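Bit of a strange request maybe. I'm writing a small parser for structure token strings and I need a real example to test against, not something I typed by hand. Could someone generate the tokens for this chain?
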Amino acid sequence: MNFKLNFNYRPGMRAVKSAFAVFLCLIAGYILKRESMFYAVIAAVICVQPTFDKSKNVGINRFIGSLIGGVIGYFSLELLLAVNKEINWLFVFINSIGVIIVIYVCNFFGVKEATTIACIVFLNLVTNFNRDSHDAFLYVLNRMVDTTIGIIFGVLINRIDFKKKGKKDEKQLENAEISQPF
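Reply from user aminoacidic:
Good idea to test on real output. This should exercise your parser:
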């Protein structure tokens, strides 16, 4: 990989939209008195893509992956809470098998594009859960709500047309090879 400083770079519209989506997520979190909007802002940034169609696709896959990872994560947490509260070899085994189950479910339902995020959501849930809380359902539900807020803002913000005259339209962007992610 070649690293080169680019002093001429100026943030593009995707960067501005990402920041605006993050801003809206944080405002929504404040208004709704959410504990943390970490998962919302991650989802928002992931969902802001070069085109609205790509953003919509990523948002749908993000939601499906979050749902699959969340459901399997919930059942894994319930199993872990029922058996033992401490991190031990059973924890390691259940989480490892859980990844296989997540991948299987994504492939079974034909949503291969959601597999990576489903695994990430699953692993996030089972490794970050405070086992002293005893409420896996509420924990998973809150993570799903936060993620959904981010998906909605990320996709909706990308729907807004901030183009200046003379800029490439969406069709040109779809066909162009994007060299910088933002």
